[in-house]
């Protein structure tokens, strides 16, 4: 324990005692989050009392006294006002545009904005009536309205992995709707890439299926580029997960394939890719497979087999539909062609 860490002793009304240490720069909100996790209750249900006063704002260093242990009383409360807030927000995140509030029909985004502070402070049941509010947001709201409330929910303590009653996690719902930027943010916050939904599909499958569909409404190039980047990260995660059961040659081929899709999926029109460029990108290719003279076995099926999201890699050079459709979707922002051609030297022209 560092000399400046704060010792805390938390006692519940039932007499349970929890001792822990935290850095003095931690906010009261972070303290509440930590203690609520230890006590296995919602942060919104926890009230911390110090010397007769309820702690709501500030930092630990505002309360610490040198050489003493900070004693806190933990109360579990479910105030009617907070329950009504949770019910209202559940309705808001479960609807696309409007919700009845205070006797009138109001826009959900405006209602949620009035509860911004409560969301950021964690005074909300982020999992309410069997639903993860973050998942509901990503499943139901208009794309242009998602970014800001998503940041509030994540800052407040919403789970990136908890399912809603429909069996979907936030990442699964984001991928099903082609929300690449949201998916990238979820991965940064620790979302699990390999969870499957009620239909048995994982996030990568859902995202690739979105690419294969004709969009209902026009999307920006950046939205499709973000989804492409997300697909590449999800594929990399799949490879890392399965590498322990693969031999050296299989690992090398998958590393080359990963490099190929990363270079090729979002490449600009007219880019030409060859084997050396793929090798240079694939930093983690097993050098021993090259030194052992894998030769033609290493590149079997080039190029089509390598521009693929599939596992294991085929040795057939036919192009993988999932990659081709995703590439064509991204290219549609610039050209109607999207044809990929191979020259006599085996280089791939990304039309």
UniProtKB/TrEMBL annotation:
SUPFAM superfamilies reported for this sequence: Ankyrin repeat, Ubiquitin-like
Domain Ubiquitin-like per the UniProt entry, residue ranges: 6-57
Xref: InterPro entries: Ankyrin_rpt-contain_sf (IPR036770), Ubiquitin-like_dom (IPR000626), Ubiquitin-like_domsf (IPR029071)
Matches recorded under PROSITE patterns: UBIQUITIN_2
Source species, domain of life: Eukaryota
Protein name in the entry: Ubiquitin-like domain-containing protein
Organism field: Durusdinium trenchii
Lineage per the UniProt record: Eukaryota, Sar, Alveolata, Dinophyceae, Suessiales
